[in-house]
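Structural prep section.
Before we set up the soaks we want a predicted structure of the protein with uridine-5'-diphosphate-xylopyranose in place, mainly to decide which crystallisation condition to try first. Input record follows.
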Amino acid sequence: MKITKICCIGAGYVGGPTMAVIAQRCPDVRVTVVDVNVERIAAWNSENVDNIPIYEPGLGEVVKEARGRNLFFSTEIEKAIDEAQVIFISVNTPTKTYGKGKGMAADLKFIELCARQIAITAKDNKIVVEKSTLPVRTAEAIKSILSNTGNGVQFQILSNPEFLAEGTAVQDLLCPDRILIGGDSSAEGKKAIQSLVDSYAKWVPIDRILTTNVWSSELSKLTANAFLAQRISSINAMSELCEKTGADVNEVAKAIGMDSRIGSKFLKASVGFGGSCFQKDILNLVYIAKSYGLTEVADYWEQVIIMNDHQKRRFSSNIVKTLYNTVSDKKIAFLGWAFKKDTNDTRESAAIYVANDLINEQALIAVYDPKVLRNKILSDLDTLETRSSDANASNILSFDNPYDACKDAHAIAILTEWDEFAEYDWQRIFDSMKRPSFIFDGRNILCGPKLESIGFHYQPIGS
Ligand code: UDX
Ligand code: UDX
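Run finished without errors. Recording the tokens verbatim:
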């Protein structure tokens, strides 16, 4: 079957960019992205592409080219399901905040809602593609819901996890390391897999398109994220040892990264990884392992999260300790709030936890991030539920430029690796601060010798 009509449920960080690139690369395929969030869809339809809801380098141009031609954003979910041959499910799957598996298992209520909506609406055979990251064997539950509709419609379930990283989403989608498609080994399953392979093959070399069974595909996504996060926790563990022994973590990372078996990527020590995926997916993996009674496997992976939490806490404790064990009423400037550069996404950003610790110590946090606004910062802190919204609002000062954020501050903490931070007039910043002036570089991106020559006390992670 040649795919000519696609629908995607969920216009978020994954669904939006993924569908925009599919539409751009396959002009003969009509792609409709639907979402329950009316404001989000309106933002995707903004005339000025600078106002689309997700900031990703290059995404505006892709949307501009395809939108209105073969890319559509809509809230008419049922109509889009009805018309499509293939339905991608790309809704969010947060960690459960209630009931069994609270704090660990993935909450699949949105996935189930989608499956039920598809079951009610579909009048002809459909391919349903899991794009969201899901626990292994979720396809079974989706299949069970879909196959009990009693209206004779046949569904094929495929797993096609997305490996894009935020900040480089468009590039990752255009030149993926691999496309993974898991499906059933029946004749119908193989046909469904082939249809999706053919769509991707319009721009992805065929040797990068890997097909597997559904369970391998679902588990590979969790495994990839667990391995990536594990590397960061491993280097962060070494960063603490480096600080005690006089070794320099950047030198250690370089030395080990030159071993081709280890490789040089994802070895940057930091204040800790953030983002919507790593923590959630590892917690989910731990939960799955525990549910099969695999205690050692669960404990092994849980340690990656424990180390990451430790690294964030260690960073805030070091600030307090260095500022003479008290930060009460002291202004501390935060450069960066997003979980990494080139995105406006703040989910699980280390900045949230470091700010929370410092507000507990009664510090005033002055934030500047090139893409994150005050209301987002406050809602991030409010979700921790550690104090009232009013208390958060009175401890967070926010600025639209770094110079005002740093003026009269006792210290600066670098929480995101935005390139522009290296370009600032650091002498001007130093002249406006309290003495002594400290920089805690949670991303190791600034030039230590240059800052020290100005007079700053410069503390990167792991040296
Ligand atoms: C994605 C993946 O889908 C998730 O599995 C992965 O682990 C993290 O990234 P993401 O695109 O980042 O999620 O989530 P988000 O930006 O929150 O977008 C999800 C969208 O789905 C939201 O716009 C939400 O309104 C929409 N949604 C949710 C629906 O349209 N229907 C629902 O029932 C639930
Ligand atoms: C990740 C995976 O990379 C991607 O394949 C998957 O689809 C979704 O999850 P993402 O979370 O968007 O992508 O960004 P990523 O580049 O992986 O960074 C995650 C966090 O790790 C960021 O906070 C980043 O700053 C941090 N990080 C990354 C480090 O601290 N050190 C590193 O060496 C690399």
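Observations: The pocket of uridine-5'-diphosphate-xylopyranose (ligand 1) is lined by residues 9-15, 35-37, 40, 90-93, 110, 113-114, 132-133, 276-277 (CB under 6 Å).
Flagged for discussion at group meeting.
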